[in-house]
Amino acid sequence: MKTSLFFVACAAFIVAGSADLDQNLLGNYPHNSADINSVIAVNKRNFSSSSDYQESSVSLSRANLRQPHILSINTSGSRLQGNITYNGKVIQQIRDKRVYVNLSPYLSLGKHTVKISTRYSPASSSVSVEFRGPGINVTQQTSGSGILNYTLNVNVN
Q1: Which distant-in-sequence residues (6+ apart) come within 8 Å of 35 by Cβ?
Q2: How far apart are the C-alpha atoms of 157 and 81, rounded to whole Å?
Q3: 114 and 149 in contact (C-beta within 8 Å)?
């Protein structure tokens, strides 16, 4: 009888712990799979030229678009110079060591393309690109060429 009670107590503890873990990992995000963001990161390097090309693809739930989705670019060097485009239109010029853009106001249902084209100096420094939002965090980093071409493909469903 003591053994049975012990196993029942252990099973209850495991179930309660799993539910608590699920709540801690997902926070207040909806548990409907259609409302959870996902990421596919593809890192491509263009070795035939002096620049790096990187690409990431993310799927976002439109239910989360009211919350910030921040794209940030940082360099360890002295400066960045270039543009961020959204579906072919320049939305932000890059003229500093750090740039932050909230993409939520631009995002809507469908497929979108965010491109970063920038030069960084000195060329030996590094550049990191990060996209963060509810349940999503994509980071890419490059160094050594002085040029970054990064594409973020965003599918909002």
Answers
A1: 29, 61, 63, 64
A2: 33
A3: no
The whole-model pTM stands at: 0.70
Q: Is the pLDDT of residue 1 over 90?
A: no
Rounded CA-CA distance 145/75 in Å is 13
> Which tokens hold the place of 36?
């959870």
Residue closest to 54 by CA, chosen among 154, 140, 138, 156 = 140
Tens-digit pLDDT profile for residues 37-65: 555 544 444 444 445 678 999 999 999 99
Count of C-beta atoms within a 10 Å radius of residue 46:
13
The rounded distance, in Å, linking the Cα atoms of 119 and 148 is 6
- Torsion sign over Cα 37, 42, 43, 44: negative
Which of the residue ranges 8-12, 46-50, 86-90, 152-156 would you say has the lowest mean pLDDT? 8-12
